[in-house]
Amino acid sequence: MRRPLLPRPSLRFVPVWRRNLRVWRKLMMPSLLGNFGEPVLYLLAFGYGFGRLVGELDGMSYMVFIASGIICSSAMFTASFEGMYSAYTRMAEQNTWLAMLGTPLTLDDIVFAEAVWAASKGLISAAAILVVASALGLVADGRALLALPVVFLAAFTFGSLALVITAVARSYDFFLYYFTLAVTPMLLLSGVFFPLQEMPEWVQGLALALPLAHVVEIVRPLMTGSWPTGVGLHLAVIVSYGAVALVLATALIHRRLIR
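Now predict its structure.
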C-alpha cells in the first residue's frame, strides 16, 4: 500500500513531546544558559555598544529596535539547533525513533512531535529574552505578549526546515552548510540588526522570500507599541514554509528509516 502524500499525525505525538521534555529537564539549566546567554549577549553588546554610534532607528532607540529582532533570531537558532543536532542524535545515533516505531506510534507522529518540540524550545528561549527586555524597559506594553504565538509558529517552521536537513544529513558536519548558507544570511538580511527598508531592493526581495523577515515584521511592532500591517501575508509565508517543510521532512525521513 502506498504511503499517503500528506502526513497524518495523531494525538499520539503528545507522548513523544513529553518524552523530549523529560529528557530536556535533566539538562534544563545548561540548555537554558546556552539558548539564552548568546542572544542576551548580542542584545547588550550591540544595543549598548553599537547603539551609541547608531542613535535612533525608525523613531526608537537602537536598543529597542534590536530587542525584537533578537527574540525572532533566537527562536530561529534554537528551533534549528533542536531540529538538527538533537533530532539527528535521536534518529541516527541513539536509534530512539526506530525504537518508537515498535509501539503504536507512526513516523508521522514522531516527526510532527519533533517539530512541535523544536517550536517549544524556540518559544522558551524567546520568552526568556522577552522577560529580560521587559526588565530593561525595552517593551512598550502588553501587546508584546501577542508576539509569543507568532514566535511559536515561526519556531515550528524553522524546526521543520531543520528536520529536512536532518533527513538528508550523514553526519553532524553537514549541518554547518545549512547554518552558513541559510540561517546566517537570514540573520543578517531580515531586519534583525538593521531596518530592512534601508537595504537595496534586491536584498529586500531576497529577505522577503525567506520566513525570518516576515516574523520580524509582525513581532517588532507588537513590542514597540503599535500594530503590524500585512499580517495575513506575513503569516501565510511563515505557515507555507512550515507546512511544505513538514511534508518534505516526513517523506524524506520515511524513505531513510522505512525500507
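The chain has one domain: 13-18+27-257.
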